Amino acid sequence: MSEPDRMAAADLPPGTVRRSGDWAVGNRGDDRYFAVSRRCRHQLADLAGGTVDADGCLVCPWHQSRYDVRTGEMVEGPRGFLSYHGPTPVYTQAVAAFGRLVRLRIRRAVRTGDDVVLE
Length: 119
Ligand code: FES
Hints:
This protein is mostly beta strands. The protein is built from one helix and 13 strands; from the N terminus they run E-E-E-E-E-E-E-E-E-E-H-E-E-E.
């Protein structure tokens, strides 16, 4: 059995996301941690560079797709594509439908002492 991934909880304050191997690990506040696969379902941005919004969703750094980190489901589609950032209503809905079906992988992340451990 392999050793679980871990990182210092001090390096993961509320609202932040960090990389741990293939995982984007974040803190939703109140010791609610999460780990999801790192590649956005839209155009494969690294979600470890994302942020956590006021609803506790992970927000992609490129076009702001939003993910429910408890399920891995995309709950709001992108605001643009490639280098364009702006409204794309039909496209946004289509990508969101895809992101609801093809979810991010999820992994349990818990606080253990001074560390956050991926189980
Ligand atoms: S790559 Fe994530 S929203 Fe576009």
